[in-house]
Input
Amino acid sequence: ILRAERMMENSATYDKLIKRIDNLEANERRLLDAQKMAHLRHWFWDVLTGEVEWSEEVYRIFYLDPKTFTPQIDSILDLSPWPEDHERDKELIEKAAKNQEQGSYEQRFRRPDGSTGYYYSTFQGIYDDNDHLIAMKGIVQDITERKLAEMALLEREEQLSLALTVSGAGIWRWQLKENRLFVDERFLLLLGYPPDEIPPHNNNWIAYAPPGELDELMTKLQDNIDSHTPFSDDEFRILGKDGR
Output
């Protein structure tokens, strides 16, 4: 009977152990899945030996095969052949060694097909008992799509700015909820204000309209707002700095 009870206890313990292992494996799978969904990857660099370890997902960011590419400092730097980026990376490492601060940076790199990719990486130093840097670790995220979208937006903004400069047009923006008006430098120049001077009524829409003409202006504006149509093909008079 005692032997049977012990066998049952051992069986229960074994079942609990198996269940615990299953839970750990499930948690690990969820973590890996979460990393894949967020495009997050981790790396480790042994400063003393120079050895670098990448998780499987890091290779995927760089479109590299772990069977043919060995991550080392020199081989990793070769992926980003821009001297200014190397200098910045060096400064970040020196800062981490001296101040033991966590940090992050954005980096561009060359893909095997010659195109440029972008990643964001965190880094954290690991130190010995004497506060000497012995290793670094971090997480990498592929941000190529976001960076390309940002650059495309910046290019469109630059083109718009150039077009406005050439045409001599100014921009105004009216915050309806706060009833505040914002105008750009070109708009102020058209009114006779130098770039370093802010007109006293810069946030007051009414002050730009000549006396007796505000009602007509506001009526047309309200019609555009109510009908959701562009505010265009209208001409109005506006007061300049000298009162003309």
Remarks:
- The first strand starts at residue 40 and ends at 46.
- The first helix runs from residue 2 to 38.
- The radius of gyration is 31 Å.
- Residues 64 and 133 are 29 Å apart (CA to CA).
